[in-house]
Amino acid sequence: MRISDKWTDYELLDASDGDRLERWGDIILIRPDPQVIWQTEKKHPGWTSADAQYCRSDTGGGKWDYYKKMPDIWPIKYKDLTFRLKPMGFKHTGLFPEQAVNWDLFAGIIRKANRPVKVLNLFAYTGGATVACANAGASVVHVDAAKGMVIWAKENAAVSGLSDSPIRYLTDDCIKFAEREYRRGNKYDAIIMDPPSYGRGPNGEVWKLEDSLFPFLQATKKILSDDPLFVAVNSYTTGLSPTIMETLLNYLLKPSFGGETTSDEIGLPITQSGFVLPCGNTAIWRK
């Protein structure tokens, strides 16, 4: 497991009985997490002094309960990057802090290449990987189907001092975009993707990760450059193991490009217990 343990503005203070206790800058939040199946004593004082908590409903969904006055939007930093946060529907804040370990990995590969690098970030959300790659010197095409997330990503780049960086923001269906890029002859040196477990396309097309990932990877392989650097796939789907993701990348990429593929869980350290909370899987092929 690779652990995102370089944060100063984020901290997983404790985790127990289906909930995370987290510090986001100066804001303390309690959010549900199905991975937290242990029921340890909640000794950390943050459990009784949090600013807000996301409470699930028995009928589905849920809502934020605010215990203190707090800003609608606030910034946190990761190294020299800045992100704007806000409580969203279905428990999210607009950032997955465990992904910082991948941001560092991608940035390191880009810097080590010492050449122009063109990155395609698919299902790119609010742009954590986008700003990390741009900050490392890459040009980035950022694609997400949700217009609000694309706007948010642009704001994150701006507060990180990357407004003038070569980032192209697109609100588009990622599958159709990859197919059009192939027809247009556009190529990328690196591709990052964080596809959803389940979804529907603009015309009702069903996306189920276990069924759709392999053909999608086949399509994205066609838009890799002749000398690609890496392809990374993130997944929060419990039924899709890191080994399966690694096998897919090996099957598709190694015969054409060589290189090596690794896969593992990523996680966050828990301050109170000293344990680590698993937070999804990443498989990455590297030249």
Question: Can you offer a commentary on this structure?
Answer:
The chain is of the alpha/beta class and 287 residues long. It has two domains: 80 residues, Golgi alpha-mannosidase II (Immunoglobulin-like, Sandwich); 190 residues, Rossmann fold, CATH 3.40.50. 26% of the residues lie in helices and 33% in strands. The chain contains six helices and 17 strands. An eight-stranded mixed beta sheet has the order 1-16-17-15-12-9-10-11. A five-stranded mixed beta sheet has the order 2-3-4-5-6, with no helix packed on it. Helix 1 runs parallel beside helix 2 and helix 5 runs parallel beside helix 6. The longest helix is centred in the last third of the chain and has 16 residues. The relative contact order is 0.14.
Name of the CATH superfamily of the largest domain:
Vaccinia Virus protein VP39
Quick one: CATH class of the largest domain? Answer: Alpha Beta
How many domains? The number is 2
Number of helices: 6
The largest sheet, given as strand count, sense and whether it forms a barrel, is: 8 strands, mixed
For the largest sheet, list the strands in their spatial order: 1-16-17-15-12-9-10-11
State mean pLDDT (0 to 100 scale): 95
How much of the sequence lies in strands comes to 25-35%
Q: Specify the helix fraction band.
A: 25-40%
Number of beta strands: 17
CATH architecture designation of the largest domain? 3-Layer(aba) Sandwich
